[in-house]
Amino acid sequence: MPDLSHAERHHSSNRNEWWRSGVIYQIYPRSFSDANGDGIGDLAGITSRLDALATLGVDAIWLSPFYRSPQKDAGYDVSDYCDVDPLFGSLHDFDAMLSRAHELGLRVLIDLVPNHTSDQHLWFQRALSAHPSDEARDFYHFKDGRGVDGNEPPNNWVSMFGGPAWTRTRDAQGNPGQWYLHLFDSSQPDLNWANPAVQAEFEKILRFWLDRGVDGFRVDQPHAMAKAAGLPDHPDVERAGAGFIEGEASPPMWFQEEVHPIFRRWREILDEYPGDRAMCGEAYVLPLSFMAKWVRPDEFHQTFNFRFLDAGWDVEKLYSAINESFAAFDGVGAPSTWVLSNHDVIRHASRFGGDYGRATASDGIGPNDAQPDRALGLARARAATLFMLGLPGASYLYQGEELGLPEHTTLAGEFRQDPTFARTGGARVGRDGCRVPLPWVAGDGAANGFNQSGKAWLPQPELYREYSRDLQTQDENSTLHLYMSALRIRGELELGSGSFDWLPQFVNDTALGYRNRDILVIHNFGDTALHLPPGEVILRSQTINTDAHTAVSTTDAVAPNETVWIRAC
Ligand code: NOJ
Ligand code: CA
């Protein structure tokens, strides 16, 4: 039973910077829309579909990486930070996309990947061919190995994608040399952020994109950038793997103090530019009380809220995630953010249709796993989304969730491209299932309007046809219409900058309810319907008198797996 003595409140805010209350839509470029028909989404495809996002009612878009890259980790392995990969188009296409977005009133955040580069980046190539004592090596973490002939890695760290976090170099004759560090794939060497030359390069990169007019950055893995001096062993690698154990001392690669001056400097740079430029950190820092430091007034504008994402369909966890969020972020005057899906986790329409553990474990669902209950997952996903979009703060949406799109859970191994799959010999199927190209027009080519050629870098499952956007546009009970209504009402009633108070009569083992301004939001996790409090129902996550598979709402109740928005009388 949630402990009401820990209930937090939040007051409405009269600070109107857009990022405090905005809804930000994540575009995964390779899967959004493909203009030239090569099977990979591109910038021209994005530009051609921006109207649909303006109609949806979001405030901003965030683009996952589109920079030059060998694409070993879907673009999170950058070989040139100041150019567009020809797969996605050109800088000219980027400018056209940005200007169309701005015409439509959409802000644009781009993804900055500072923890590591691609092994094809000039900095790394230069370092590889340099002598171990040369300063070119100081851009990265090169070290001699341990043991006989340096055969053992320099420390015990493991990669987030499985396997060791070190790879040994070889010279042109094949002689083994030093090792280099990679917290992710071996094609993603970690930069050495203690080196002022690395810091200076990134300041130039920030300015390059700010000068072009971007509204800010989503910063990849900021909590990994600084490493403890000397790179000591992880004290508990057996239990923590590549990660950390909450409440215990932080391992030498996660959230080291030395990262903060870097982001404070970046904030100064953003503040030099006109307009409301913003920086959001993908910081996996827990508990959230530790994260508060990251969003102090002179640091990140906001960070992702993985505590909320991980809470899943668990009343107690959700209740405490929300309390913890307001306690931590209000304390430093920062907005909380909320998120249910992104390109690294199982889509929430599938995650809520089964028991798949921690959302952020980045383990997808494969053909050999228990398959999600599609109808239950969708009903719960719609309820969870309405619960989230009623909260004050900024919310992040992931492309396709507005269609109620499920994960591709039967994708065959031969198509999988996430390095996690290969690095674990298929034991972890990885994240491809949430990255499949979007269906726009039912039956239009084999890829449902993703392009005209029918090619797709990951094949869509048959069932994506029924989730196509054109079908949902015509159906007022569709998930797309639910998102549009929620975003419209959220905007009209200024819920994003609103207030938050728990409704104690709806905080128990099977329900959570809160009030934001005049709106009561009631979420039923239980098996039996709840009586509605007095007021006018303005939105509900299930449709009245629809079919079969899901519990059906009645007008005077909150059905199981449903969220209702009520205007209090
Ligand atoms: C987090 C990104 O979201 C993920 O997709 C990527 O694999 C890692 N960072 C490494 O860049
Ligand atoms: Ca393309």
Bound molecules: 1-deoxynojirimycin, calcium ion
Mean pLDDT: 95
Quick one: CATH class of the largest domain? Alpha Beta
Q: Which CATH architecture of the largest domain is right?
A: Alpha-Beta Barrel
Looking at the structure, the CATH topology of the largest domain is TIM Barrel
The radius of gyration computed from the alpha-carbon positions, rounded to a whole number of angstroms, is: 23 Å
Fraction of residues in helices? Answer: 25-40%
Low-confidence stretches: 545-552
Beta-strand content:
5-15%
- Order of strands side by side in the largest beta sheet? 11-10-9-5-2-1-13-12
Could you characterize the architecture of this molecule?
25% of the residues lie in helices and 15% in strands. Helix 2 (43-56) packs parallel to helix 3 (91-103), helix 5 packs parallel to helix 7 (259-272) and helix 12 packs parallel to helix 15 (479-492). 50% of the residues are buried. By secondary structure, it is of the alpha/beta class. It folds into 3 domains: 21-115 and 206-227 and 266-473, Glycosidases (TIM Barrel); 122-181, Alpha-Beta Complex (Oligo-1,6-glucosidase, domain 2), CATH 3.90.400.10; 503-568, Immunoglobulin-like, CATH 2.60.40. Helix 8 links the parallel strand 10 (278-281) and strand 11. An 8-stranded parallel beta sheet has the order 11-10-9-5-2-1-13-12. The protein is built from 15 helices and 20 strands. The chain binds 1-deoxynojirimycin and calcium ion (CA). 1-deoxynojirimycin (NOJ) binds at residues 73, 76, 113, 184, 220-221, 282, 343-344.
